[in-house]
Amino acid sequence: MTDIIIQGINGRMGKVLCELISQREDCRIVGGVDVSAQSGAIPVAASLEELNVKADVIIDFSTPEATKAALRYCQTTGTACVVCTTGLDGECEKMMRQAAEKAAIFKSANMSMGINLLAELAQKAAQAL
User: pTM to 2 decimals?
Assistant: First the structure.
């Protein structure tokens, strides 16, 4: 069983992840991080340190500043992280490389439907031209 923390759990993508993960038997959400912390079936706190829950991996759909906090946490604890946040600066890219020395860090591509559709259409236009 893979234990997951979702950073940005109350956002649009966080809610989608909760729905998809709830349908699986090989993983579960053990906590969430969001500025609008709320209690419920899944504990949610304003920071990873406040959450006080251990997990195998953090899935980060948040903000660049929150991503930096997650990377510091992962570097300290060795927790793996999937970074899905966009708009990251050079400092954050450097932090990802540093954290990757202590934990598995995976930076995903842009998850936006609009961006992915645009990329696919650009590919088809390039083939046609």
Answer: 0.82
